[in-house]
Hints:
The structure holds 2 protein chains of 2 kinds. Chain A is an all-alpha fold. Helices cover 76% and strands 0% of the residues of chain A. Chain A has helices spanning 23-48, 52-92, 96-111, 114-122, 129-134, 138-141, 144-170, 173-181, 186-216, 228-239, 243-270. In chain A, helix 4 (114-122) packs across helix 7. The longest helix of chain A has 41 residues, at 52-92. Chain A is flat and about 110 Å long. By secondary structure, chain B is mainly α. Chain B has 9 helices and no strands. Chain B has helices at 2-8, 16-48, 53-68, 71-92, 103-128, 132-140, 145-175, 187-198, 201-231. The radius of gyration of chain B is 22 Å and the shape is flat. Chains A and B meet through helix 1, helix 3, helix 4, helix 9 and helix 10 of A and helix 3, helix 4, helix 7, helix 8 and helix 9 of B.
Amino acid sequence: xxxxxxxxxxxxxxxxxxxxxxxxxxxxxxxxxxxxxxxxxxxxxxxxxxxxxxxxxxxxxxxxxxxxxxxxxxxxxxxxxxxxxxxxxxxxxxxxxxxxxxxxxxxxxxxxxxxxxxxxxxxxxxxxxxxxxxxxxxxxxxxxxxxxxxxxxxxxxxxxxxxxxxxxxxxxxxxxxxxxxxxxxxxxxxxxxxxxxxxxxxxxxxxxxxxxxxxxxxxxxxxxxxxxxxxxxxxxxxxxxxxxxxxxxxxxxxxxxxxxxxxxxxxxxxxxxxxx
Amino acid sequence: xxxxxxxxxxxxxxxxxxxxxxxxxxxxxxxxxxxxxxxxxxxxxxxxxxxxxxxxxxxxxxxxxxxxxxxxxxxxxxxxxxxxxxxxxxxxxxxxxxxxxxxxxxxxxxxxxxxxxxxxxxxxxxxxxxxxxxxxxxxxxxxxxxxxxxxxxxxxxxxxxxxxxxxxxxxxxxxxxxxxxxxxxxxxxxxxxxxxxxxxxxxxxxxxxxxxxxxxxxxxxxxxxxxxxxxxxxxxx
Lengths: 276, 237
């Protein structure tokens, strides 16, 4: 039998051993210091290069350029989405002619650089300017903005068709069979059963495609469209001031990050029923 | 038709040899960028899955920046940025000289940085696919951590990451076309020169597109071959 006079008074847990300066911690700290220095250097550079005249001249131009970029991407994504429907259907079609044609289209536009496609349309269609004039299309293809829109639409349609096809094929067969067993017709099955499930799968690739288009649209600056990149090159060619490119980088980063976070938010929102 | 053949022919009258040289430049640039991008991407992936928060943070900053910038802008930032930076450095040391950096090197750095951010994502998801037990098995066999990585994790990692890396290679191949903008004589620049001189823009840019398609087809053959080769030892179980 044991006798206790009192309980041991509560004690604080032993102190955590001091964090070791492991190699990875040293490397990580150096990297963070590097990024902080780089950020501070950037801010100092921009403050040092701050010129009210420069800002007053080029800020409105940058905003107009941003608007051009976003308009171009928005329109081509929407037109591409419409165009991608028949292509995706062709890819999934059992008719060999349709599926081969759709495959060739997708292979061409995904296998060649967007910039080469843009040059092919903007400079290349100039070769046929007499024939195009005869059918009244030259007015359209004369303008660099229209050419860019045309090239982007064709390009994104190929990518979106593949996204759509992948998403539709990711819906299990049982869903089709279940809908058939319920007596739903083909169209209703597609609209009410297949599409809602496919779009959840497709959301992330669609978002990536929009981001890729925003970044890819910078090349229209080369064919004289004054988008964000075009205005940047204009500003740089006038002033030879490197801050033009820094400002463009800041603009692009903000747009892409806002978009990316919005997409994550949307994805979390529409997959609430799948979270367990 | 004969005129088309003459234009594309080799020799003085045609642009075939110039375009072939452009194809060589494009291939060389992509092949030179690949190891650089792969190594940096692997290191960034290691940092991202490290237990050290500072390493994770710095890797995240790196990928956020270079994934968010257009490739063309990255190229300009590298090309003009390094030139201006070097010029400032020289001025500080009292020399005023005009510095021109090699367009090939600028393209290699810019494309490699972009490639590495995407490659790090591929490697990271491949790391996540490797179960903890593999590391523990390495520990219990008394292998050094670097040995575990090299002999146990890496062979499996490559097999998982290969399809993703194959896609990235295709993207890289297409991104090299951007380097023509800063004046490197790749496929697009050479065909562009030919198009401007001969006024046969559709022909030459069409040829450029076809050449990129050919490169893509060749690459997919090689990638399928590599995938089959890496699977040889794995599928016996």
